[in-house]
UniProtKB/TrEMBL annotation:
Ranges where the record places region Disordered: 1-21
Name the record gives this protein: Tyrosine specific protein phosphatases domain-containing protein
Biased composition, class Basic and acidic residues, residue ranges: 1-13
Species assigned in the record: Aphanomyces euteiches
Source organism, top-level taxon: Eukaryota
Coiled coil: none
InterPro entries hit by this protein: Prot-tyrosine_phosphatase-like, PTP
Lineage: Eukaryota, Sar, Stramenopiles, Oomycota, Saprolegniomycetes
Length: 447
């Protein structure tokens, strides 16, 4: 039995906020929301309802998807077995706790923020697993009090939530780890489940990159590697591209520079910053990085090839220019600053992709992790900061914007100074707001 309370019911409550307080409450402060949003599936592929955005990076053992339902996990394993793989390493890169009820994934959200990911900065995979166990225990307690009646939220249209009442089997309430531990497939010998939290729009923490290197390096020819976030777009594309670089590094190292499959290896110094081609990633800070690294031009070409190869849903390089363009076109100063900050964040991600490519091209020894290599090259971080790369969180940026409320000329000047910083202007980089940092920082994200 399923009962839906939508717009008609809302007329009978005092306010939307009161309405959103309804639902089965877990851990006292959370409500459950179905882990699907409108327009989630972007590919012309089957089974988008159970395994949204599931795809393979052609010619590799690397796959990606949004959070699948239990039936979707089985479908994915069927596909991997058909593709000839007998072992799977599955890496969930979400920062949110996930709980399954009768094979359907749900997330826990505060009632006032049903459309925002509820994330704790720097949370680890182990911490999320503990939270999921607590959510399960709390939900089971609530179901015992309500005769197994679950009230949850789902989003039939964008940002419009409905309350659903459904009778469920408490035995079918499981954490994500339990679901993955229980999964079996006759053609798959083993499924190793890993958790590695990655922030949207950011390059992963260095220690997570080291984990990815370890997992992929240990995988044999019979092992497929699957990555998923909630939507299977931004974060999944980021980590799939990283995985491809790690996987393809031996081939890259086996070729001489003259054998590289690139149209032309340009010298970074020859790139004219006055006529930057943003789609090709020729930003001033990127040109400076290519000059700084001994193999910078080669690394950029390799990274661009990997990005283009993995751009089926999300293009890691083009999104920089897209956000920059929005920052120029939005009528509201706060919106312009928001998109400019996001452009800075994804530009820094691209910057660190090239840095990581340089690390791989140096053929590091087994003991020389990316973390240790970065510690040996502290000057690389300075390249980004010296050209207007960043030092402030989104909240600090918006606090400054709020302090300028009613002073449109000053807000526009604020925007101009940050824009100069992104393009390498010394004038812009000298201001507090022009040093917007992106590293380790989180914007509140819709969904």
């Amino acid at each position: 039995m399923v009962k839906v309370e939508g717009d008609a019911s809302r007329e009978n409550v005092d306010s939307d906020s009161q309405f959103q307080e309804q639902g089965t409450r877990v851990l006292e402060k959370y409500l459950l929301k179905k882990d699907r949003v409108p327009g989630l599936h972007k590919l012309d592929t089957p089974n988008g309802d159970i395994a949204p955005n599931f795809r393979r990076l052609n010619g590799s053992p690397i796959y990606g998807c949004a959070q699948p339902a239990l039936e979707g996990i089985r479908y994915i394993l069927n596909t991997l077995a058909s593709d000839g793989f007998t072992k799977v390493v599955w890496v969930n890169i979400r920062e949110e706790a996930v709980i399954f009820v009768e094979g359907i994934p749900f997330t826990a959200r505060p009632s006032s923020k049903l459309n925002e990911n509820d994330m704790v900065p720097d949370i680890t995979g182990n911490s999320i697993a503990v939270l999921e166990a607590s959510l399960k225990d709390s939900l089971l307690e609530q179901l015992s009090r309500s005769e197994s009646k679950l009230e949850y939220w789902h989003e039939p249209t964008l940002l419009c939530n409905e309350l659903v009442t459904q009778l469920v089997d408490p035995k079918q309430v499981k954490t994500l780890h339990e679901v993955m531990a229980d999964i079996q497939h006759p053609g798959i010998e083993s499924v190793i489940f890993q958790r590695a939290t990655i922030e949207r729009g950011n390059f992963p923490e260095h220690q997570i990159v080291d984990q990815l290197i370890e997992w992929i390096s240990k995988a044999d020819l019979n092992t497929a590697v699957v990555f998923n976030c909630q939507k299977g777009r931004c974060r999944t594309t980021t980590v799939m591209t990283l995985a491809y670089l790690i996987w393809s590094a031996p081939l890259q190292l086996s070729m001489s520079v003259s054998e590289q499959p690139f149209a032309k290896l340009m010298q970074a110094a020859s790139m004219d910053s006055q006529t930057m081609d943003y789609k090709l990633g020729r930003y001033k800070v990127i040109l400076a990085l290519c000059d700084k690294l001994a193999n910078g031009v080669r690394s950029k070409e390799w990274i661009d090839q990997a990005i283009d190869k993995n751009a089926l849903i999300y293009h890691i390089r083009h999104v920089i220019g897209d956000n920059r363009k929005k920052s120029l076109e939005e009528p509201q100063p706060a919106d312009r600053a928001f998109y400019l900050h996001r452009a800075c964040r994804v530009l820094e991600r691209y910057f660190y992709f090239i840095v990581f490519g340089s690390y791989l091209l140096e053929a590091p020894s087994a003991g020389n992790t990316f973390t240790s290599w970065m510690l040996e090259h502290p000057d690389l971080c300075g390249v980004f900061d010296s050209l207007g790369g960043a030092a402030n969180t989104s909240s600090e940026v918006f606090e400054e914007l709020l302090s300028l409320t009613g002073k449109s000329k000053e807000i526009d000047q604020f925007h101009i100074s940050v824009f100069k910083a992104v393009n390498g202007s010394k004038d812009g980089s000298e201001t507090l707001t022009a040093r917007l940092i992106l590293y380790h920082k989180v914007d509140k994200k819709v969904h």
